[in-house]
Amino acid sequence: MGSAGEVVQAYVTAQVERLLASVPEVRAGDDDAVHDARVATRRLRAALSVYRPVLDRDVTDPLRGELAELGHVLGAARDAHVEGHALRRRLEREDPSLVVGPVERRIEEDRSAARLLAQDRVDAWLASARFGELVATLVPDLPTGPRAPDDAATVLPRHARRAWDRLDRTLEVAASAAPGEDRDEALHEVRKAARRARYASEVAAAVVGAPARRSAKRAHRVQEILGAQHDAVTRQETLRRLAHQADLDGESTFTYGRLHALEQRAGEAAQEAAETPLRRVAGRGHRRWMR
To answer: pTM to 2 decimals?
Structure first.
């Protein structure tokens, strides 16, 4: 089984390997590879954060900041591609008589420009000395903390529980948030906390097994469905911005308004669909493995 530090290190090493394996395709502009690199980066950051007491904080805390920045530039590239694809599909389903003005061209130019700019930043990051230093520090062995306990079966579930406690706090805030922007922001925080709890459970699954994997699955479902809700909110913001630009150029904004309404409904539908997964993830029965 190994010590807590060894279990965390094994997880970190696996994610670094996934990240490095995706680099050639990321540099080639493959969006699936960008997604894989982003996920590996997020998993690394979550592991170093949740299990921070197990490791040497002087070493790992700076790494978390670097991973946050890398995740941001990867996210910008991935999000521009996904959003552009979603908006084009939404437009394709519209009655052609309701598509007024060069809407498709505006969407394509705007999201392609954002994607190219983000790709330039990704390429620069991956070619930098910072990236090489980040990887070299993460493997082969991160130093453990000065008082890090050895009992992984006790230590890892305890720290995972703290990640789940954090999720509970975001759920409470979301439940009392006013509809609209406040609730959208609160649900975004729930999604991020669910992702953190999921990855924390993945690490602990090395010593806990199926119970931790079941908890991770529940958190993943929340992450997915609230991701759809957040994406719809983000697309509404993009459509408002494009409509403003079209208006300044003397073009009709009719179609942007229709698309905005459809995205608003998609966000509301995702929020309604999230009720059961949120209730299940908040349950205590699946958390018995957490000490």
So the answer is: 0.93
